[in-house]
């Protein structure tokens, strides 16, 4: 009887446990505020100074840099965005942005600290 009571108690305690899901943040934090400082004609070093090194540098397309960011909280995707820089002869010619890019540096950092 005592053994059954211990097993039932142990089962009840373990049954209430749920796995903890960690926050997963990947990529470059970029804000519209910072992106506004990037101008066509800048060289790759200037862009890297403003935005950091790109997450993806395709070896087959050296003139394209991809800045990607995603935040997953408790298994749910909260935010994702991508900024693509296109260069020609080492100079920036075009910027594409996709997703919900934070407006300011402060908002970008709040994503991380939520």
Short note summarizing the structure:
The chain is of the alpha+beta class and 114 residues long. It has helices at 2-15, 32-35, 44-51, 105-113; strands at residues 24-27, 56-57, 64-73, 76-88, 91-99.
- Which bin fits the share of residues in helices? 25-40%
Number of strands: 5
CATH topology: Beta-lactamase Inhibitory Protein, Chain:B, domain 1
Order of helices and strands: HEHHEEEEH
Give the number of domains.
Answer: 1
Question: What does this 3D model show about the protein?
Answer:
With 114 residues, this protein is of the alpha+beta class. The protein has a single domain (21-113), classed as Beta-lactamase Inhibitory Protein, Chain:B, domain 1 (2-Layer Sandwich), CATH 3.30.1450. Helices cover 31% and strands 33% of the residues. The chain has four helices and five strands. Strands 1, 2, 3, 4 and 5 form a five-stranded antiparallel beta sheet that branches. The longest helix has 14 residues, at 2-15.
Overview features:
114 residues; alpha+beta; Beta-lactamase Inhibitory Protein, Chain:B, domain 1; 33% strand
């Amino acid at each position: 009887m005592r053994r059954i009571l211990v097993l039932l108690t142990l089962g009840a305690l373990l049954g209430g446990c749920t796995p903890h899901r960690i926050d997963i943040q990947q990529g470059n934090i970029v804000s519209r505020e910072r992106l506004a400082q990037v101008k066509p004609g800048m060289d790759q070093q200037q862009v890297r100074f403003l935005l950091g090194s790109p997450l993806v540098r395709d070896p087959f397309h050296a003139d394209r840099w991809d800045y990607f960011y995603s935040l997953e909280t408790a298994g749910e995707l909260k935010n994702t965005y991508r900024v693509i820089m296109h260069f020609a002869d080492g100079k920036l010619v075009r910027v594409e942005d996709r997703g919900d890019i934070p407006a300011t540096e402060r908002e970008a950092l709040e994503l991380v600290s939520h």
